[in-house]
Hints:
By secondary structure, the chain is mainly α.
Amino acid sequence: xxxxxxxxxxxxxxxxxxxxxxxxxxxxxxxxxxxxxxxxxxxxxxxxxxxxxxxxxxxxxxxxxxxxxxxxxxxxxxxxxxxxxxxxxxxxxxxxxxxxxxxxxxxxxxxxxxxxxxxxxxxxxxxxxxxxxxxxxxxxxxxxxxxxxxxxxxxxxxxxxxxxxxxxxxxxxxxxxxxxxxxxxxxxxxxxxxxxxxxxxxxxxxxxxxxx
Length: 212
């Protein structure tokens, strides 16, 4: 088995050196996880960096993580942010959520920006990424960032966050339900059934579009 894995690594390395992005990505992940090779963040960053430079979004996301933590490369928040932004632009829901958080808190080389925060969260939530749906639901429970409180829409996003496995979404939804009037709860439940039945893009975000 050990010899077989050595052959696999050799084949991957050859393909990676010839510019194959998937081979570069696979090698980078193997070195980052000590998967059948010795842990080596420098090698991980080398191969992931090559794949990321060729536009592979998964590699761009991991390069953001490496730069944020200083693994295999100098720690650099701004460089991490640039990689996360590129991965988000490629459509990765997890990175769109990360970008939303970046603009929420003003991290990784960007200034706080509620409009861009909301855009990142919405793009991610519409791809059914539970943590982004949870973030939107929590934002709609408060009067912050210029976002108007909307318990009905918050209920919709939190319900989807529960379905999509976001940690603590159930507790947040229970807390919200206790705050809602019977009329609001009935309206929210009707919306979940109809909405325009949430389709693949989730509940209607019309109420958020003009919230800022």
